Structures are given as C-alpha cells and as structure tokens.
Amino acid sequence: xxxxxIARWQFGITTVYHFLLVPLTLGLGPTIAIMQTLWVRTGxxxxxxxxxxxxxxYLINFIMGVATGIxxxxxxxxxxxxxxxxxxxVFGAPLAMExxxxxxxxSTFLGIWIFGWGRLPKRIHLAALWIAVAGSIAxxxxxxxxxxxxxxxVGVQLxxxxxxxxxxxxxxTNNTAVAAxxxxxFGSLGVGGGFLLGIAWYQLWQRRRDGxxxxxxxxxxxxxxxxxxxxxxxxxxxxWIISLRLGAIIAIVGFxxxxxxxxxxxKLMFDxxxxxxxxxxxxxxxxxxxSVLAIGDLSAQNCNQVVNIIEIPGLLSFLAKGDLTxxxxxVNDLVPSYQTTYGTTLxxxxxxxxxxxxxINYVPLMAVTYWGFRLMIGFGALxxxxxxxxxxxxxxxxxxxxxxxxxxxxxxxxxxxxxxxAGWVFTEMGRQPFVVAPNPNPSGVDGVFMFTAAAVSPGVSxxxxxxxxxxxxxxxxxxxxxxxxxxxxxxxxxxxxxxPELAEMPPDDDSDHRDDVLAFAY
Length: 522
Hints:
The protein is mainly alpha-helical. The protein has 16 helices and eight strands.
C-alpha cells in the first residue's frame, strides 16, 4: 500500500474521532456557564443541579478531547514531516497562541472551577468557568485559522519554494477562517443543544415510567416526588424540563446559524476551491442547476457516467453567487484549467519518491464529497426539525410515556454529531489532491500550494504507518468505550450521580459541599 494512503487514513480516523468531542465541548461549555450564572443570580437550586449534572458530562468529554487532541500534533512530525516543514513558518504563530494563551487559560481555570466548589466565593468560581469556556472558544479559533490557511493561503511570500509569514494579521483575519469558525461554533451549539434535549427527554420519560410525574385531564404535567430515590423530587422535574426546552432552543438557533454561515462558506469555496464544490454537486457540466439526486458510478471519477435525475434550476448559481443565472463551471471544464496551471503529472522531484511522474487526478473522490455534503445538510436539518417538534410536544411540561419516542429522542443526539463529522470529511477530502490548496483567484497568494503526495515523511514505511494506524484505532476504540461507559453511568444516575450530597441531607444553597469536590472531578 502507498504510505500516502495509509497516512491519510490514520489522520482521518484520529481527526474525525477528536472532532466528535470538540463540538460537544464548545456547545456545552457556554450553556453550563449560563446555568451557573442563573444559579448565582437567583439562588434557585434547580440551576445548581443543572450545572453540576451537565458539568459532570462536560468534564468527561473535555478530558477525552484533550487526550485525543494531543495525538494530532505528534502525527505532524511522525507521518507528515514534509508538510510540517512547508507550513511550519505559518503555523508556528497561531498554534503557539492556541497552546500558550487559549489552552493555558482553558485548562488552568477549568481546574480552578473543578476544585473550587465550596472553596471560592460564588462569583469568583463562576468567573473561572467563564474564562475556561472563553479559552475553549479562543483555542478553536486558532486551530481553525491554521486549517483555513491550508484551504486559502494568505499573508505569506514564497521564498525558495516555501511560504514565509509576512502578515500575521492577514492569516488571523482570513475570510475563510472567519466563515469556518462561525460555522463551527453554530454547529457546536447544535450538538450541545441536541445533547441536552435527548438526555433530558430520557430523564423525563423515566419519571413518567416510574409514576413520579403524572398528567391531568388537560395533559399538563403534575410533578411528583419519589422520597425513596435520592434527587427524584419536584425540583428534579424542573431540572429536566428546563434542560430539554433550553436544549431545543439552542439547537434551533445553532442550525439556523449553520444555514446562514454555511451559505457564506459555500460562496467562498466556489471562488477559492471551485473543484471541491463542483465535485460536491456532481456538477460535471457548466450550468446553474443543483443536483438533488444523481445516479452513476461516483467512485469512478468519470463525470461522463454521472446523471442528475433530480435537479433544481438556478439553485447552484444561488449557492455560488447569490443569483439564479450565473453559470458555475463544471468538473469537465475545470480539469483542463487545473492541468494547464499545475501540470498533468507529479514533478520529477525526489520528494515524491516513486510517485514522481504519476498522473494527477484533480477530481476529489466524488462519492465522498457528493454524499458528505448531503449528509451534512440532511442530518443538520433532521436535528433542527426534531428540536422544533420537541418544543411542541413538551409544551405542557413533560414527555409522552412512549418508549419508542424516547428511543428516537436519544438516537437524535447522534444526528448533529453526524452532521459535523460529515462536514469535516467533506471539507478535508474535497481539497485533494492538495494538502495546501492553491488560490485560483487574486485574493490569495499565487503559487503557494502543496500536493498531498509530497507531504508525507520520506523515511516512514508502509509497515510502520500501518502499525500506527492499527494501534491508534484500537486505542481510540478503547477510549470511546471508556467515554461512553462513563457518560451512560452518570446519565442514568441523574443529578444524584453528580451531587451525592442529595442522598445525605436536604438541599442547601449556602452549604459548604467540600466532600463532593473530588467526586465531581472523579
């Protein structure tokens, strides 16, 4: 097997897994900070319970996210050393900012928040959480700045074949980064909102199943108490109904933002990476129509075999240019222009090894880009629709007793995760055969690009890469089992799992809960 293919599989597997954890951290963090703010301002114990419960799940996910994220940096030196040399002068600044500023604040103040329960004044403790959340949000920005530079190189000069940073501000304000960052944040809100909605639905259903909550003749909830079960009181009902409806609202806002920012991102892609978007639409011929459904062998990379059987006239032009008439260049017309500009074969350079002289295929894997784009939109729309339905169903304060509806609500948690993962795969796979995409328009720096075939480490063999792929995949699978086990354990335990003091004494907002500090931090 070609080391390039194995290295791409390795980076793809670890990155997609890591990115499943990132949007949950970004989406849950601000939500939990708002919950604690409401508790500090109102003294309402429901908000304290919400903060403790959702904070427990947030920490589990955060810790796993850090563990899996560290591996990404090691891969640059292990499997992608040529790529690291090429982009190192540019990536040094934003990644240093991410590590020294954003991650420092994120990890330090999160530690203060974990161990500060009952030890710090409420407002200082709350401020620690807000600073940690702000660090997470800033950390994401610097990472996306680096990734977006690969999509649209700016702020550099090409010196001796390498890009040298000359304008850090241009890199930090890259229009591709701004669009991708806002898109990522809204997508993360969708993930966080869906997470709240599905788990809170399960908890309310459990209260209905156990007969704790009932409904009157109008269908409105009558909250009850189970005195023998810690934490299953009337306040517990408030925790879950508020969490559910808050999650639904956050999810709706998130996916509305995704639609708007996605439109802006699509317009930039059509200008900066026309082949990526043409392949995503299976737009083989230049035209204006958007393909709803195409048939043919998309994996064959031969547009002559692809036929659009359902097409919306003018929609592709609207996505690209904001009108209904502008013709969008298709794959068959783009290929000759790419070949003229960047060549038909890989250069005869030692950096390419045995791949030198191979024919360059400028069409990304259309089966991935075409369906990845549609899965991203489809799962996102499904999650938004589910949130709207959930708001209507729970308008009277509880959920139906149906086990099947509960299972659908829990499964719905995965829809925004799938949308985010599909979008990430589309973004990265659609850039091929480039690891740093060229700029076909005047907004970028001409001549700054790198073929993926030139980016791998020359001294790493296929066997070594295959061993690392298998090892990391098994390790990540084990970490997934650990995370899911911990999440399920504390979800089933409810608020009492995060607040063991509920089983020992009546709730007291002003009590000094020193005993549960280490329990909260595991």
